[in-house]
Amino acid sequence: MVWVLEFIMLKNRPPIVVILGHVDHGKTTLLDYLRKSNVAAREAGGITQHIKSFQLTTDNRQPITFIDTPGHAAFSQMRSRGSLLADIAILVVAGGDGVMPQTKESIQFIKSAGISFIVAITKSDLPGFNADHVKTQLTESDVIVEDLGGEVPAVSVSAKNGEGIADLLETIDLLAGMNPPQADPQGVLEAVVLESRLDNHKGPLAAVVVRSGQLITGKHLYMDKNIGKVRALLDWEGRQLASAGPSLPVEILGLSTVPPVGSIISDHPVTAESTSSSLSAPLPTALNPLLNIVLKTDVLGSLEALSSALPTGVNMVSSGTGDVTESDVLQAKASSARIYGFNVKTSSSVVKLASVEKVPLSLHRVIYELLEDIESRISPVVTEVVTGRAQILAEFKIDKERVAGCKCTEGEFNKSDSLQLLRGGQTLGSTRFKSLRSGKSSVSHIKTGAEFGVVFSPYLDFKPGDNIIAVK
């Protein structure tokens, strides 16, 4: 089985750079220096709670699109999504703290995405900064920097005084120039949803980065259905745009629904598809819930990240975005649930009703505090780990066997993996690879971005649009 991809009018586009690393290692402060706005100080607890994106344009270099991703463990899905979208990653490691758990997690995201990356050793202005120690630590994660004979560039930087920033940007230019990212600006629109929310005044909003084609004011947009018409496009500084091309991050106004984070928006109803299920489908559990909760968050990305971070045994009776309402209290009462709110408000009447109905109500602005609250009420349970995700694009028949034509969207697959078939977020069954082929060759391993064909054993009744995941 062979797929032939035809690209028309491919042109170079600005590189998309994702910032990854451990919590409080200086990711947002670094980007704050670049965009000259005091973003870090406005984040609760000094920790970035949502993906941010902007494009840096200077007089003497090509534009660069940056994606800032949250640093807390609960937002690993957001970081993974950013790494899959990006062309280049910057792995931020604080020169005083060194390699930490989320540093190692970020390294795995980068390797799974198969993208070039730079190590930015931050906080060079602080006492205790030791770049050599960081470089040595990184070798334990199989990251060998150029100073030690490897191929990974490392730059010491300070977001306080600007030391090393010019070198960092020059290194990004160098990596982008070695393998220039390209897109068809006149092709079918593909825009990846990085964040979405329901605004009380503006309605559904979606922050996206255009992957190909043109996002144009007045055009109808699609996923699996028509989701509205672009009423306005706003860039990262709130300026209104008539259109947005490849690599440009913008916010869309005028949608009829809040699109799932990670989904693909198109201007063509035939090719449009939502990838939210392949990026964020939860693993089912047969265990009895130990804690019922009602969860309300400010935006969909927070809801998705929190949902994925909850320990097995927690049952979400209901969830959604927006402030806690009286109906939430009544639903929690009927289900013997606790209400948790993240970055949301509640009126005095709702607080009074919760008190009368004896419904526990906890509001938090920092993600790890909310999770610690939940974890203090339930013992953690080990869950299955998803190591690869793929979408079924087509169906073929070869030697009377049904073959699923797939594309790996995240992680990797090995021929020995245990698999689950998903449709609309629901598990249809478990299976394994009977046959795994790339092109005309049998293979034992598939990486992110690769297209491949599979025969399942035991047989499962799949169809295009379904997703498969590898679990351990």
From TrEMBL:
Pfam families named among the record's database cross-references: EF-G_D2 (PF22042), GTP_EFTU (PF00009), IF-2 (PF11987)
Chain ranges of the Tr-type G domain: 12-182
Keywords: GTP-binding, Initiation factor, Nucleotide-binding, Protein biosynthesis
Alphabetical list of SUPFAM superfamilies matching this protein: Initiation factor IF2/eIF5b, domain 3, P-loop containing nucleoside triphosphate hydrolases, Translation proteins
Signal peptide: none
InterPro entries the record matches: EF-G-like_DII (IPR053905), P-loop_NTPase (IPR027417), Small_GTP-bd (IPR005225), T_Tr_GTP-bd_dom (IPR000795), TIF_IF2 (IPR015760), TIF_IF2_dom3 (IPR023115), TIF_IF2_dom3_sf (IPR036925), Transl_B-barrel_sf (IPR009000)
A single MF term (Gene Ontology): GTPase activity
GO CC term, one of those recorded: cytoplasm
Stated family: Belongs to the TRAFAC class translation factor GTPase superfamily. Classic translation factor GTPase family. IF-2 subfamily.
Protein name: Tr-type G domain-containing protein
Species: Candidatus Amesbacteria bacterium RIFCSPLOWO2_01_FULL_47_33
Taxonomic lineage: Bacteria, Candidatus Amesiibacteriota
